[in-house]
Design goal:
The relative contact order is 0.10. This protein is mostly helical. The model has no long low-confidence stretch (mean pLDDT about 90). It has one domain. Helix content is about 80%, strand content about 0%. It contains 5 helices and no strands.
């Protein structure tokens, strides 16, 4: 495996995670599929790997956004606390769905999701 490429993917996904709130799914998964296959065998393994990596990335980004200015924190704790329980449940359901959805269909759904998010961000408020 090319550790330099893996490290570069980690750096870029960390920057985009802290900057835009995305990194694992929108950056790391496609990058691993393009540049790290093998050892990444398919989209399901790329998703699982990115979820492990995003834990410390999210912790660091959250800490920096919290410490930006104690009076102007970039974290809305009420919204975050409301999101956590259902996000945990959704994460479980999503991981379970990767077992029942074929690799090819998962790639197509993921690609369509990225396109729709991009269109929404570019053309709508």
């Amino acid at each position: 495996m090319n550790y330099f490429i893996a490290a570069l993917i980690g750096l870029i996904s960390g920057i985009t995670s802290g900057l835009f709130g995305v990194g694992g799914g929108l950056v790391m998964v496609p990058a691993m599929l393009f540049f790290l296959t093998p050892p990444i065998r398919d989209i399901k393994q790329a998703i699982g790997t990115s979820l492990v990596v995003i834990i410390p990335t999210a912790m660091m980004g959250s800490w920096k956004h919290f410490n930006k200015d104690p009076n102007l924190s970039n974290i809305n704790w009420n919204v975050a606390l409301a999101l956590v329980p259902t996000a945990i449940i959704g994460g479980y359901i999503g991981a379970w769905l990767t077992k029942v959805i074929s690799t090819g269909d998962l790639k197509r759904v993921f690609g369509a999701f990225i396109i729709l998010v991009g269109i929404r961000l570019l053309f709508f408020k």
